[in-house]
C-alpha cells in the first residue's frame, strides 16, 4: 500500500483551509455550530469550536465534532492535518467513504467515527497509521471483509468495529496486535470458527464477538492464554461443544455471556472460583445436569441468567445467599424442589426474579417480602400451591407480578380475592397476571379500583371467579389490557369504561354475563380487541360501534344478540376479525359489507340472516375465512366470490341457496375448505383447481347437483353436447318434413 501526499509543506494556514473544506462538505448543521464559529476571516482555527492546537507547533492536534448531529462527508484535504493526534466525529450523520488521503495522518493516535453512516469496506490504508492506539468505527454501514492490514497496527489497544455488516471469517492475523486490550466485532455477519489467533492476545481485557454466525467449539484452553480478560461476550452465535472450564483461570473476569448458542455439557463447577464475576449469562443453550453448588460462592455476582438451558435438579441454596445479586433468571428449565424459607433474607439488592416454567413447588416463602428493591417477580407455570401470598403487598416498588399457571388458591377466610387488597400498596404496578389458578368462588373486591394508576395489564383468566364485575374497575384509567376470560362471572357488563380511558383489549369471554352491550364501550377510543363471546349477552348490536375506528378484532359469538347487522358496522375499514356466530341475528347482510376492506375473518354462522349474499362481498380481497352456514340465505352463490383471491375457508352449508356452484370458484388457489351441503343447489359441480381435492361431505343434500368426480357421490351430468342435438334436431326435421310433404303432394297432382 502507498499513501499519496496532497501537500508535503503544511502550516496552520493549511490546517485552516483543510477545516474549511470540511465545513464546505457539511450539508446540514442543525445547531449552526460550524456556520457561526468557523469563519474564513479568522487568522487561526485554534479558537474554533471542536479544534485544539498544540502550543509548541501551533498546529491542529485535536478535532472533536462529536454529538453535533452534522450531516455531510469527509473531504480529502483533511489528510493535510499532519499534526492531528485525535479525530472524533462520532454521533453524527457523516456518510459515504473515508478519503484515502487520511492515511497521511501519521501522528494519529485516536480515531472515532462511530454512530455515523459511513459505508463501503473498512479502508485497508488504516494499517498505515503507525501510532494508532484507538480505532472505533462501530455503528456504521461498513461491509466486506476485515482487512488484514489492520493487524499491522502494533500499538493498537482498542479495536471496535461492532454493529456493521462485515462478512467472512476473522483472519488468524488478528493475533498480531500484541497491545490489544479491547476487541469488539459484535453485531456483524461474521462466520467461521473462533479465531485461534486471539489466543496470542495476552493483554486482552474485553472480547466481544456477539450476534454473528461464528460456529464450532471454543478452545478448551482458552482461559490459559487470556490472563487479563475482564469481559467475554459471545452470545447469539452458533458455538457448540463444552463451555471451557479454563475460563476460571481468568482471575479478573467479570462478565461471561454465552447466551443463545448450542453449548452442551455441564456448567463448569470451576466457575465458582471466579471470585470477581459479576455477570454469568448462559441462557438458551443445550446444557445438561444441574446448577453447580459452587456458584453460591460468587459473592460479587450481580446477574445470574441461565434460562431455557435444560437444567435439572434443585436451585442451590447458596444462590439465595449472594447479597449482591440484582437479577436471578432460571426460567424455562426442569428445576424442581421448593424455595428455601430464607429466600429473601440475604437478597437486599434483588430487582428481578425469573423462575417461571419449571417444576418448582411448595408455598412462596414470606421472606421474599424482604426484597424491598424487587420490581419483577415471575413464578408462573410451576407447581406452587397454598394461598396467593398477600405479603407481596410489602414489595412497594413491584412493577410486574406473574403468578399464572400454578396451583394457588384464595385465602379460605375471605370470599373476596384477598391478594388484590394487598396489592393496593404497590403503587408502581404495571402488570398483574394471576391466570389459571384454582381460585374457585372468589369474587373481585371493590378495592380493585384502588390498584396502581400505572397498572396497564390485568389478567385473571380461567380462575373460577364468581360474582359480578365491580364498577370500580373503571377507576383504572391507565389500563390497556383487561382479561377476565373463562370464569363464572355473572350480572351485566358494567358501563364503567369510556371517555379518556386507554383500554386497548377487553376480554370478558366465556363467562355468564348477560344484559345488553353497554354503549359506553364505543367511547373507548383506543379499543382494538373486544371479546364477549360465550356469554349470555342479549339485545342489539350497538350501532355506535361504527364509530369505533380503532377496532381490529371483535368476538361476540355464542350469545343471545337479536338485532340485524347495521350498515354502520361496515364503516370499520381496518377491522380484521368479526365473529358474530351463534346468536339470533336476523335481517339481510348489508350491501355495504365491502367497506370492511381489511377483514380476513368473517363468521356469521348459526344465526337467522335472510336474503341474498350481496355481490359486494367479492370486494373483500383480504378475506381468508368466510362462514355463513346455518342461516336462511337464499338465491345464488355470487360469482364475485371468485374475486376473493386469498380465500382459504368457505362455509355456506345449511341455507336455502339455489342455482349452480360458479365454475369461476375453481380459480381460488388457496381454498382448502369448501362446504355447500344442505342447500338447494343444482347443476354441475366444478371439477378443476381446488375442487379436485374435495369430498362428498362438501356437497351433501343438494339433489340437483351432478358431476364427473366419483368421490363427490353425485350422478353424472347429461352431456351438454347431446342435449343441444336433441333441441336442434326437431328444428331441422320439422321444415324438412314439411318440404317432403309438399313435394310428394305435387307429384300426386
Mean pLDDT: 93
Q: Low-confidence runs (pLDDT<50, min 5 residues)?
A: 720-749
DSSP strand tally = 52
Terminal Cα separation, in Å?
Answer: 122 Å
Proportion of strand residues: 15-25%
Q: Tally the helices: what do you get?
A: 5
Broad shape:
globular
Overview of the molecule:
- The chain is globular and about 100 Å long.
- It has a 27-stranded mixed beta sheet, with no helix packed on it. It has an 11-stranded mixed beta sheet with strand order 1-4-6-8-10-12-14-16-18-20-22.
- By secondary structure, the chain is mostly beta strands.
- It is built from 5 helices and 52 strands.
Key traits:
single chain; 749 residues; mainly beta; 11-stranded mixed sheet; 8% helix
Provide a short characterization of the protein structure:
This protein is mostly beta strands and 749 residues long.
Topology record:
Elements: H1 12-24, E1 26-28, H2 33-37, E2 51-53, E3 60-64, E4 71-72, E5 86-88, E6 93-96, E7 110-112, E8 117-121, E9 134-136, E10 141-145, E11 158-160, E12 165-168, E13 182-184, E14 189-193, E15 206-208, E16 213-217, H3 222-225, E17 231-233, E18 238-242, E19 255-257, E20 262-265, E21 279-281, E22 286-287, E23 303-305, E24 312-313, E25 327-329, E26 334-338, E27 352-354, E28 359-362, E29 376-378, E30 383-387, E31 400-402, E32 407-409, H4 418-423, E33 431-433, E34 457-459, E35 481-483, E36 490-492, E37 505-507, E38 512-515, E39 529-531, E40 536-539, E41 553-555, E42 560-561, E43 577-579, E44 601-603, E45 610-611, E46 625-627, E47 632-635, E48 649-651, E49 656-659, E50 673-675, E51 680-684, E52 704-706, H5 720-748
Parallel strand pairs: 3-5, 4-6, 5-7, 6-8, 7-9, 8-10, 9-11, 10-12, 11-13, 12-14, 13-15, 14-16, 15-17, 16-18, 17-19, 18-20, 19-21, 20-22, 21-23, 23-25, 24-26, 25-27, 26-28, 27-29, 28-30, 29-31, 30-32, 31-33, 33-34, 34-35, 35-37, 36-38, 37-39, 38-40, 39-41, 40-42, 41-43, 43-44, 44-46, 45-47, ...
Antiparallel strand pairs: 1-4, 2-3
Amino acid at each position: 500500500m502507498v499513501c499519496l501526499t496532497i501537500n508535503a509543506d503544511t502550516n496552520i494556514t493549511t490546517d485552516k483551509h483543510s477545516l474549511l473544506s470540511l465545513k464546505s462538505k457539511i450539508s446540514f448543521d442543525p445547531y449552526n455550530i460550524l456556520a457561526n464559529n468557523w469563519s474564513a476571516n479568522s487568522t487561526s482555527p485554534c479558537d474554533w469550536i471542536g479544534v485544539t492546537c498544540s502550543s509548541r507547533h501551533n498546529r491542529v492536534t485535536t478535532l472533536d465534532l462529536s454529538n453535533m448531529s452534522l450531516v455531510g462527508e469527509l473531504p480529502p484535504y483533511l489528510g493535510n492535518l499532519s499534526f492531528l493526534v485525535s479525530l472524533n466525529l462520532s454521533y453524527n450523520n457523516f456518510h459515504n467513504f473515508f478519503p484515502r488521503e487520511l492515511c497521511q495522518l501519521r501522528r494519529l493516535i485516536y480515531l472515532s467515527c462511530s454512530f455515523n453512516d459511513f459505508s463501503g469496506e473498512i479502508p485497508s490504508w488504516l494499517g498505515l497509521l503507525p501510532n494508532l492506539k484507538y480505532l472505533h468505527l462501530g455503528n456504521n454501514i461498513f461491509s466486506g471483509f476485515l482487512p488484514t492490514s489492520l493487524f499491522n497496527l502494533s500499538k493498537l489497544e482498542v479495536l471496535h468495529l461492532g454493529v456493521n455488516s462485515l462478512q467472512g471469517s476473522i483472519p488468524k492475523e488478528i493475533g498480531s496486535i500484541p497491545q490489544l486490550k479491547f476487541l469488539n466485532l459484535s453485531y456483524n455477519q461474521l462466520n467461521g470458527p473462533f479465531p485461534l489467533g486471539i489466543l496470542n492476545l495476552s493483554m486482552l481485557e474485553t472480547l466481544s464477538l456477539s450476534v454473528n454466525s461464528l460456529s464450532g467449539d471454543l478452545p478448551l484452553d482458552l482461559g490459559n492464554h487470556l490472563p487479563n480478560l475482564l469481559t467475554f461476550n459471545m452470545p447469539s452465535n452458533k458455538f457448540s461443544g463444552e463451555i471451557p472450564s479454563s475460563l476460571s483461570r481468568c482471575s479478573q473476569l467479570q462478565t461471561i455471556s454465552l447466551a443463545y448458542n448450542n453449548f452442551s455439557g455441564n456448567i463448569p463447577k470451576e466457575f465458582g472460583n471466579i471470585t470477581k464475576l459479576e455477570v454469568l449469562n448462559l441462557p438458551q443453550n443445550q446444557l445438561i445436569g444441574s446448577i453447580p453448588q459452587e456458584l453460591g460462592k460468587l459473592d460479587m455476582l450481580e446477574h445470574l441468567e441461565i434460562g431455557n438451558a435444560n437444567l435439572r435438579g434443585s436451585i442451590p441454596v447458596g444462590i439465595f445467599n449472594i447479597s449482591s445479586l440484582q437479577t436471578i433468571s432460571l426460567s424455562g428449565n426442569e428445576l424442581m424442589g421448593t424455595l428455601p424459607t430464607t429466600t429473601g433474607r440475604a437478597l437486599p439488592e434483588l430487582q428481578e426474579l425469573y423462575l417461571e416454567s419449571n417444576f418448582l413447588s411448595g408455598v412462596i416463602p414470606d421472606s421474599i417480602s424482604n426484597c424491598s428493591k424487587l420490581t419483577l417477580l415471575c413464578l408462573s407455570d410451576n407447581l406452587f400451591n397454598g394461598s396467593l401470598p398477600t405479603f407481596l403487598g410489602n414489595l412497594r416498588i413491584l412493577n410486574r407480578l406473574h403468578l399464572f399457571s400454578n396451583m394457588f388458591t384464595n385465602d379460605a377466610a375471605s370470599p373476596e380475592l384477598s391478594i388484590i387488597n394487598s396489592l393496593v400498596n404497590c403503587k408502581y404496578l404495571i402488570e398483574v397476571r394471576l391466570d389459571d389458578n384454582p381460585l374457585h368462588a372468589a369474587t373481585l373486591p371493590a378495592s380493585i379500583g384502588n390498584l396502581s394508576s400505572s397498572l396497564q395489564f390485568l389478567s385473571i383468566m380461567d380462575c373460577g371467579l364468581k360474582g359480578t364485575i365491580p364498577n370500580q374497575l373503571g377507576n383504572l384509567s391507565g389500563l390497556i389490557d383487561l382479561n377476565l376470560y373463562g370464569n363464572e362471572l355473572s350480572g351485566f357488563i358494567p358501563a364503567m369504561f369510556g371517555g379518556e380511558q386507554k383500554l386497548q383489549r377487553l376480554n370478558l369471554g366465556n363467562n355468564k354475563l348477560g344484559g345488553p352491550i353497554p354503549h359506553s364501550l364505543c367511547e373507548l377510543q383506543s379499543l382494538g380487541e373486544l371479546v364477549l363471546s360465550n356469554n349470555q349477552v342479549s339485545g342489539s348490536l350497538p350501532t355506535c360501534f361504527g364509530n369505533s375506528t380503532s377496532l381490529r378484532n371483535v368476538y361476540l359469538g355464542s350469545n343471545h344478540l337479536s338485532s340485524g347487522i347495521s350498515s354502520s358496522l361496515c364503516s370499520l375499514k381496518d377491522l380484521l376479525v368479526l365473529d358474530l356466530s351463534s346468536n339470533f341475528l336476523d335481517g339481510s347482510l348489508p350491501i355495504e359489507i365491502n367497506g370492511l376492506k381489511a377483514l380476513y375473518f368473517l363468521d356469521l354462522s348459526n344465526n337467522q340472516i335472510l336474503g341474498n349474499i350481496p355481490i359486494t362481498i367479492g370486494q373483500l380481497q383480504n378475506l381468508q375465512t368466510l362462514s355463513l352456514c346455518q342461516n336462511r340465505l337464499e338465491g345464488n352463490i355470487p360469482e364475485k366470490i371468485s374475486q376473493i383471491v386469498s380465500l382459504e375457508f368457505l362455509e355456506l352449508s345449511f341455507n336455502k341457496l339455489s342455482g349452480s356452484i360458479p365454475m369461476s370458484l375453481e380459480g381460488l388457489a388457496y381454498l382448502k375448505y369448501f362446504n355447500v351441503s344442505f342447500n338447494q343447489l343444482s347443476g354441475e359441480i366444478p371439477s378443476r383447481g381446488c375442487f379436485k381435492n374435495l369430498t362428498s361431505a362438501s356437497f351433501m343434500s343438494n339433489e340437483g347437483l351432478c358431476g364427473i368426480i366419483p368421490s363427490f357421490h353425485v350422478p353424472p351430468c347429461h352431456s351438454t353436447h347431446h342435449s343441444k342435438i336433441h333441441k336442434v334436431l326437431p328444428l331441422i326435421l320439422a321444415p324438412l318434413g314439411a318440404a317432403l310433404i309438399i313435394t310428394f303432394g305435387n307429384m300426386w297432382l
